């Protein structure tokens, strides 16, 4: 007849070092030893890991903004929705923002990117590729007495600019990139058009907003051909 087993043998015997740099060993039932070890070390480990993550994000150039998920890159791709017509107050300004961007069909606003009044807000700091295309359609004014062809414009050039500002100080804006081209005149045309495109890589902080401005905004009258986009690289 076999000898009766002890309670420790029935529950699984385990010896475990309970403290670092110590000879203190706890032996007994596996479940009880593991529970005691977990209670002693969990809070300490949690505090250590939490501090490591806080230090990592403080020293990193990555800053989070609401709505961002780290494994998918923020991206926006928009096309023009409607023509932006200047108000009476706007007519005194040389350059105005393009505010009407379409959100449906093949347009994208993903992973924390927000669109508000024509401005795209980025959710995380980093280097972004920014691009925009605008088609200008303008009317040529002919003066037969002076034999001249002019364009009704306050600006001598078709100007297409991308600006940035931050939600903390929306009144301050910085020019990111710009392209300009003189109005083209022709003896054989009443109307003319010109396509502009700008793109480049720039560093943006979480909460920065980027937006497009053009001179003579009423000439940007082909919304489906106007494009504005951004992607984290």
From TrEMBL:
Cellular component, GO, one term: membrane
Keyword Manganese included in the entry's annotation: no
Lineage: Eukaryota, Metazoa, Spiralia, Lophotrochozoa, Mollusca
Keywords for the protein's UniProt record, in alphabetical order: Cytokine, Membrane
Protein name according to UniProt: THD domain-containing protein
Molecular function via GO: cytokine activity; tumor necrosis factor receptor binding
Residues of the THD domain: 74-233
Provenance organism: Mytilus edulis
UniProt GO BP: immune response
Annotated family: Belongs to the tumor necrosis factor family.
Localization terms from the record: Membrane
Family matches, as Pfam families: TNF
Main location: membrane
């Amino acid at each position: 007849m076999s000898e009766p087993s002890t309670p420790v043998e029935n529950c699984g015997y385990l010896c475990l070092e309970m403290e670092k740099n110590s000879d203190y060993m706890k032996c007994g039932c596996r479940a009880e030893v593991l529970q005691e070890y977990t209670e002693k070390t969990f809070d300490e480990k949690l505090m250590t890991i939490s501090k490591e993550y806080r230090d990592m994000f403080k020293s990193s150039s990555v800053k989070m903004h609401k709505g961002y998920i780290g494994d998918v890159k923020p991206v926006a791709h928009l096309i023009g929705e409607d023509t932006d017509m200047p108000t009476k107050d706007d007519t005194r300004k040389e350059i105005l923002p393009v505010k009407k961007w379409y959100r449906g069909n093949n347009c994208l606003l993903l992973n924390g990117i927000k669109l508000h009044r024509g401005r795209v807000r980025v959710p995380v700091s980093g280097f972004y590729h920014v691009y925009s295309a605008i088609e200008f359609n303008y009317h040529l004014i002919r003066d037969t007495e002076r034999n001249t062809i002019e364009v009704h414009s306050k600006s001598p050039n078709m100007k297409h600019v991308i600006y940035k500002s931050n939600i903390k100080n929306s009144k301050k804006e910085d020019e990111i990139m710009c392209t300009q081209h003189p109005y083209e005149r022709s003896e054989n045309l009443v109307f003319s058009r010109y396509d502009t495109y700008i793109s480049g890589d720039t560093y943006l902080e979480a909460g920065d907003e980027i937006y497009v401005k053009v001179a003579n905004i009423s000439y940007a009258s082909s919304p489906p051909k106007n494009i504005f986009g951004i992607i984290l690289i």
